[in-house]
Amino acid sequence: MGVLVKALLLILSILSFGFAKQHVFLVDKYNKEIDLEAKIISKIATSSLGKKVKLYIPEITKEEQKIYSKHFKITQNCESANFVFDKNGIAEENCKGKDKLFFTNNYKRLISNKKYYGAFFWNKSRPNIVFIKQRLHTNKVNLSSEYSQFIEDNVE
After folding, report:
1. Rounded CA gap, 62 and 41, in Å?
2. What average pLDDT score do residues 35-55 get?
3. Average pLDDT in the 3-19 region?
4. Tens digits of residue pLDDT in 72-85
5. I need a labelling partner for 107 at 20 to 30 A (CA). Which of 40, 71, 88, 123 fits?
6. Residues facing 85 on adjacent strands
7. 99 in a domain, yes or no?
8. Domain limits for position 43
């Protein structure tokens, strides 16, 4: 009888582990890279605007929205935003307005498009921040001295 109970418990244990993967969705997946990105963008946006940030990210994923909403008020459209983090290069098509700051996650896009005043991107698994000096002036952005090492001159 004891062997039969042990065998039954073993079988039930194996079955429960087999079905455990189906319930993993109940546990929140934590994405360190997106969380770090959100914290950095939050600090940059707050410093750049000097007021409460209303963030718009075109085609934001549900996971990004969940993480970014811890640091920002997320807007569903560009018109109600004052800071646009354009991760896919599509904000320039449908987002107009002089009262917005445009930031990208692509260095080449930053250099080639004067709409963006700065970029945050990953290079060799390291975060990089770049601001264009002339565009900071054009957008009337006064960053604190802690960002001076990230400002590039003579890019345009």
Report:
1. 18
2. 93
3. 69
4. 899 998 889 999 99
5. 71
6. 103
7. yes
8. 32-152
